[in-house]
Amino acid sequence: MARENGKQKTARDMILSMGVIILVAGFVYLFIPHDDSPPDVKAVDYRVELLTARRAASYPVAAPEGLSDAWKATSVRFRGDQFDAWHLGFHDPEGEYVAVEQSTQRRPVFLDEATQGARETDRTQEIDGKTWTRYEGGRYDALVLEDTEGSTTVVTGTASFAQLTKMAEALQTK
Predict the structure, then answer these.
(1) pLDDT value at residue 75
(2) Which of 72, 114, 152, 173 could form a disulfide with 91 if both were Cys (CB 3.0 to 4.6 A apart)?
(3) According to the model, what pLDDT value does residue 11 have?
(4) Segment holding 141, helix H or strand E
(5) Which residues contact 7 (CB under 8 A, 6 or more apart)?
């Protein structure tokens, strides 16, 4: 009989211990502040990199002008040693990602990397007198402009085609 009493005591102790753990976890969850909101997006200033890229690149480098303050630049880089690759990433007003990519790299290789494997569709759209081709993919969609000055321009990201179009409309080269 002593054996059964010992097993019952062990099971009871285990249940009591679990109850104490659940109470402490509940207390921590309720009374210790936690923030479930998305983190603030840190904006970057891309003016210096843009000026550098425009001086060094073998093609006219594009950047947006006239977008609202709700568009936040989040990443920028120019790699002159890697096909004059220009990248400018944004967080759009809807919380999605939009990037401007330009390069002199071979078009198929560059497009696969810039669009994250999106595929060309038969749909095109006119933006400021230029024909952009739509690409659709699992992760990113894109608008692609094959420039006549030796580079390819891609506006890509997780944003809707409406937002991608807004970015493409805002692009200026100088």
Answers:
(1) 97
(2) 72
(3) 82
(4) strand 141-146
(5) none
Exposure of 83 in the CB half-sphere (CA atoms within 13 A): 15
Q: What is the pTM (predicted TM-score) of this model?
A: 0.78
Give me 4's structure tokens: 């059964």
Q: Which residues pair with 171 in a beta bridge?
A: 64
Nearest-angstrom CA–CA distance, 141 and 51: 28
- Write the DSSP string, 102-135: EE-S-HHHHHHHHTTT-EEEEEEEEETTEEEEEE
Cα 114 to Cα 66, 68, 131, distances in angstroms: 24, 25, 19
| C-beta of residue 156 within 8 angstroms of C-beta of residue 142 | yes
| Tokens linked to 61 | 């480098």
Position of tokens 């595929």? 119
Say if CB 164 and CB 98 are below 8 A apart. Answer: yes
> Who's near 125: CB < 8 A, 6+ residues apart?
131, 132, 134, 143, 165
User: Is the CB of residue 100 less than 8 Å from the CB of residue 167?
Assistant: yes
72-79 vs 171-173, strand pairing mode:
unpaired
Burial of 105 per CB tally in 10 Å (0-12, 13-18, 19+)? middle
pLDDT tens for each residue of 33-81: 877 776 677 889 999 999 999 999 999 999 999 999 999 999 999 999 9
Strands 152-157 and 130-136: unpaired
